[in-house]
Every structure is written in C-alpha cells, then in structure tokens.
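Worked example 3 (structure in, sequence out).
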C-alpha cells in the first residue's frame, strides 16, 4: 500500500526546491519561542513563529531548514519596512559569523499569502513615483531672501501650507506604541537628533561638541515629558520642508517624499516647515523684519487658529530642535555661516529651556 503524503503549502514546497535543489518537503513544524512554561526564564515573546522544514534529498538524506517571518510589534518592528530590514540584515550578516547557521534565501511573502518571492539575488532596492509639475517652495523663500519682500502670494502660500497640515493632522490614530516609537525615532534614529548630532564635524564654527551635547541632553529630557501625549498621534507627512512641497499654478500644492512611517505628533510637521522661515532669514538677516517674520507669524497663526491645537506649543520644543539641528548642520547645508548657525542654535536653546514655545522667540535671534 502506498504511503499517504501530507499536502504542504505550494510556496514552501517551491522554497525547499530552490534552497536544496532536488529535495522535497516532507514535514512542517511550528517552532514556538519556548516550550518550558514553568521556568522563571521562560521566553514569552519572539519576533514571529518560525517553521521547521524537513527536506528529503534524492538519496534519502534528510535536511532541516527554518522558515522565518517577522510579526509586527512595538520593539521597532511595527512598520513593514522594519521587518524587511530585519530579514535583509540577517541575510547579509549571518555568513560572517563563525559557526552560525547559514542564510540560504531571503524574500517576501506575496500579498495574498500564497507565494514567496526570492530576493536572494537582489542588490539595492528601488521605487518609482509620479512627477509633480511646478517649482519647489524653497525657490519662493530664496526669492524672498534676495528681495527682502513678501508678496501677497507668499503670505497666501504660508496659509495654504498650514491648512494642508491641519487637514492632514485631523486623522487621529489610536496607537500609543506608535507615538512612543515616533518619540524614540525623534531622538535615537540615524535620521533623528542623535544621528544629526553625530554628523557634525568636530570643528564646526559656533557648534562645538559641548554645545551640541547640551542640546541633545535637553532634548532627551523632553522625550520623557512627552511620553503621556499619546492621544496626539496623527497622520503626518514626516518630512514637510520647502524642498518637499511643490506649487503649480494649475495643480496647486503637491508634496513629495513622506517619511518616518507617516505617524507622529503634528508638531513634527509644523516645526519642520516653520524653522525654514528662520533658516532662510539667517542668511539674509535684513529680510527677517521686512518679510520672513510675517511669513513665520502667518504660518503659525494659520495653523493654530484652524487646528485649535494650542497644546502644540507645549510639545513643540524637541521637534523644532531636531529640525534646527538639521539646517545648521554643514553636512546638509555646507554654505551656512557661523553667524547663521549660531542664530539657529540659539533659537533651539531658547526653545528647549522654556516650558512652552512662543513663536516670538524667533525675534530674539534677530536683534
């Protein structure tokens, strides 16, 4: 009588065939984090439930493989991109560790859950997007800095940017771990405050290491102040600066390159755009009172009036500090003068030391 064979998922059958040419899948077994439910050291959580795959080679020899996936959690794996990073990093590094089990393949599960797409032979990743006609908003700010004049359209655009954010931020999210993650990324990610500070060379005029260290430490204190603000979690752009906004006469406003999971505190987006009115002015201080001060005030007032989010001023400090550290960093803007950098860092320090942000702080750095 012929032996009955268990039917296994076709995707796993193909995976085994690809990883071990000529072999067939004969057994699938879930591997839970820990099977001892009595010991104090029992592990209660992992990053997914791997599967033990038993493959039989043509000569009858059996070989065991492990199929790994990653599950969402709030330990830095809540985004699909985080989980992809985990898998790609493991594939790239396992082979360099003595006596480590080999990494045989890496890939993605198809959206329907039925197929597996191998990335074993892939190099860097790519993305294709659409095109937005028009000019980046930074061009308008450069004109204002050059002429020292803010036209009616400039003021209208400042209000339009604020209204765009108000509408975007109306979509609130009920996920405290995502807010905490956003705060953690604000400080600790490579693109956050720690990473930006690390990117300053040792001899940057007006930005000695001692000054940057003090700013960083003050920001860390603010992270703990904001831990309970989880109800503020909103949909956000995540990188809302003048080079990521396009204005076109026919199409209006378009935005580019949303980032950082698009979830966080509205203050992130607001300060990201607002700091640029100061940044473009510090290179042309004469234009602050004649033009940029009005744009700065119009943007803040428009957002606060229409959102009615007065609490934003209580939480804005570390977000403005981060964005200020970016524009003052010579790695991002190598032409910034020592005087301009000092003005931006002074605004950061004034903001971090106050219990509540006041847009009038900007006037102090242009006296």
């Amino acid at each position: 009588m012929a032996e009955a064979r268990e039917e296994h998922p076709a995707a796993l059958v193909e995976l085994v065939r690809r990883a071990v040419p000529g072999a067939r899948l004969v057994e699938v077994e879930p591997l839970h984090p820990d099977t001892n439910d009595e010991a104090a050291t029992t592990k209660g959580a992992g990053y997914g439930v791997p599967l033990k795959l038993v493959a039989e080679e043509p000569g009858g020899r059996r070989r065991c493989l492990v199929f790994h996936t990653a599950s969402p959690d709030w330990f830095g794996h809540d985004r699909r991109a985080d989980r992809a990073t985990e898998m790609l990093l493991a594939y790239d590094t396992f082979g360099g560790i003595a006596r480590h089990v080999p990494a045989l393949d890496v890939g993605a599960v198809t959206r329907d859950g039925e197929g597996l797409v191998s990335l074993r032979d892939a190099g860097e990743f790519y993305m294709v997007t659409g095109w937005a006609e028009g000019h980046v908003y930074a061009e308008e700010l450069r004109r204002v800095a050059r002429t020292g004049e803010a036209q009616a359209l400039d003021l209208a655009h400042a209000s339009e940017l604020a209204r765009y954010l108000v509408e975007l931020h109306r979509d609130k999210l009920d996920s405290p771990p995502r807010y905490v993650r956003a705060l953690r990324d604000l400080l600790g990610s490579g693109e956050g405050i720690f990473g930006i500070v690390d990117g300053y060379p040792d001899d940057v005029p007006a930005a000695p290491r001692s000054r940057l260290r003090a700013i960083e430490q003050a920001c860390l204190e603010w992270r703990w102040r904001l831990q309970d603000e989880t109800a503020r979690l909103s949909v956000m752009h995540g990188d809302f600066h003048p080079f990521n906004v396009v204005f076109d006469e026919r199409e209006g406003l378009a935005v580019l390159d949303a980032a950082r999971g698009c979830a966080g505190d509205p203050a992130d987006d607001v300060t990201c755009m607002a700091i640029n009115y100061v940044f473009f002015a510090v290179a042309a201080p004469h234009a602050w009172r004649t033009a940029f001060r009005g744009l700065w005030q119009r943007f803040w007032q428009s957002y606060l009036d229409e959102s009615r989010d007065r609490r934003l001023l209580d939480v804005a400090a570390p977000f403005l500090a981060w964005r200020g550290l970016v524009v003052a960093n010579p790695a991002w803007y190598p032409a910034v003068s020592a005087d301009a950098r000092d003005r931006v860092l002074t605004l950061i320090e004034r903001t971090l030391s106050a219990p509540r942000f006041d847009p009038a702080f900007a006037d102090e750095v242009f006296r």
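Notes: The two ends are 95 Å apart (CA to CA). The first helix runs from residue 10 to 19.
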